[in-house]
C-alpha cells in the first residue's frame, strides 16, 4: 500500500516507477508466523510501484530466517542482480527487513537499486503504554470519548501497522480491572457485567488485537492495577464496598475471596488468549495501608501464582513501586528497593515466567520530555539498588510518559537520540512511551468542518512514534531517514518542514527542564499550565509562578535564584542555563523555525497545512516564553533593586509575550476546537463529573496571560 499523501506526487511517482516495472516473485523460505504479514507488506508496496507479483518472475525476492547468523530482531538485505534476499534473525527481524524494503520503494528507489543493508536492535523492549478507555485509571470524558474508536478492530490494525513500521515491539494495555472485559470468570461468573452476546464481542475484540499483534511480531501485555473487583463482585460478596467507583487511592481489601478471584482470572486470561504474551503488575493502586512487603506478598499470591497455574509460560512486567509506599508504612526507600529487588529476582527464577523480567521505573516521574538527565523517578530519589550489583535475570525499563502535549505535532530527533544514549547502560532493556492522560485514538482536536486526510489521533503524531521507535531500535538511525519521511508525505517542502519541526519542538522540552514537576498534572507544557498545589487546580503559569519555580534540571537557574545571585554580586558559570540564556536560545531556534516554514502554505494537503501551523504555534509559544522570561527577570529585579526602568522593561517584555500568545490563538483557533483535558477533571477537590465540561484552548487562557502585564504594572519595589 503506497503511503504518499500528495495526489500529484503520487501520479508522477507511479509514472516514473512504471518505467522500471517488472514481474516479481516472492519466495517464503520460512514458515514463521510473521512471514505472511511480511510478504503481504512487500507485495502491497511492489504493486503500488507498478510491479506485477506473480508465481514466477524476472526478479525474485526471498524471505528467510537465520537465527544462527543473526541476532533476534536483526535483519539483512542482500541484493544480487535480479534477486534480493531478506533475512531476519527471527520472525520479527524478517518483518523489519521487509518493511525496510517497503520504505525504500516508497521513497522512490527502483527495485534493482536497493542496496545491501543490515540493522540490529539496540534495546530489546520498545513498548507503547496504551490506557484503555474502559475502567480508566483517571476519570474524564477526555478518556471515555475514545470507547467507540477503541472497539473497532480497524483502529487497532492501523495502530499495530504503525508500531511495526516504527519497530515498536510491545503493546501494553492498561486499566484498573481488565479481566472481565476479556473473560467471564469460570469460578466467579457473578463478577461479569456482560450478557453472552456482549462477552462474545469483547472476546472478538481482544482476540483480534492479540492475534494481529503477534502476526506483526509485537508482544502484548495486560496491565491491571491491583486490588480492584467489579461492582457486581463486590456486591455479591460484600467486599471492597468502599471502592465501587474505582478510585485508585484506596485501602487494600485483602479478603481471601478477592485473592482467589484475582488468581483465577489471571490463569483463565492466559489460557483463553494464547496470543497474549504476558502480564504486568503494579504496587500502589488499591493497596492503601499496606507495607511494601505486604504488597509484594499479595502480588505473589495472586498475579504471579495465577501465571504459574496457567498451562503455558508467559512474560512479566514488574513495575517498581514509588517511594510514597514507604515511610509510615514500615520501610525506608532503600529497604523498599531491596524488598522489590528480591521479589523481581525470585520471579525471574520461576519456570512459568519467560525471562528477562522487565522491571519498570518512571523516568523523571511523569515528565521525561524535559531533560535527558535522570533527575528523579516516581516518588523522588532513587538509590541504585536495582542495578548495583548488576542484575542478570531482569532488565530495567524506563517509562517515558508524555503528559505534556497531545494536540500540537512534535518531534526532536537529537533529543530522543541523546535520551536513549545517555540512559542505556547494560542493565537497561528498553522504554515505554505513551500517556496516562491521553489516548491516541479519536481525533478530538480538529475543529468541525476542517478538512482532514487522517482518521486517528496517533496519525497526527506520526513523527513522535517514528522517532522513539526507530531510535530505540537503532540509535544510529540518521536524520536522513526522518527527513525522507517528510518528503515522502509532503514532497520537496518536507525538507524545510523537518528542520523547522526539530527546532520549534525544543520549546516544551525547555519549559519542562526549567520548571520542576512531578506527577501528571504538575505540568502541561503545551498549554503552559501547571497544578496549583494549594488550590488543587490546573492553572496558567503566571509570571510570579515562573519567577519562584525551581528548575527540574539543576543545570538551569530559576528567575528568583538568578536575580538573587546577581543582586548579591555573584556570577554563574558557563555550564549553567540562566533565564536570559534560555530566552536567547528559545528566540534563536524559534525564529529560525519560522524562517524555515515561511511561504510553505502553497499546498492543499490538510496534513501539511496543519503540520506547518503546529510548527508556527510551537515557535510562537517559544517566543512568548522568551519574552516572559525576560519580563520575569526585569520584574524581579525591580522588586529587589527598584528602578522605574526595570519596571517599564518588565511591562514591555510581558506585553510582547502577550502579542506572541495572540499569534498562537490566531494560528490555532481556525484549526482546533476547545478540547477536553484530563487535567481539568480532577481539580478543586470535587468529583470529576463537576469539572468534566471544562475545555482547553489557548484562547481561553488569554485573560490570564494578559494579567501578567497587570502584575508588572502593580508591582512595588522592595516587595520581592
From TrEMBL:
Biological processes annotated in GO: carbohydrate metabolic process
InterPro entries named among the record's database cross-references: Hex-like_dom2, HEX_bac_N
Top-level taxon: Bacteria
Alphabetically ordered keywords of this record: Glycosidase, Hydrolase, Signal
Residue stretches in coiled coil: none
Any Pfam family matching the protein: Glyco_hydro_20b
Gene3D superfamilies xrefs: Chitobiase/beta-hexosaminidase domain 2-like
Signal peptide, first to last residue: 1-21
Domain Beta-hexosaminidase bacterial type N-terminal as annotated: residue spans: 34-107
Gene Ontology MF terms in the entry: hydrolase activity, acting on glycosyl bonds
Protein name: Glycosyl hydrolase family 20, domain 2
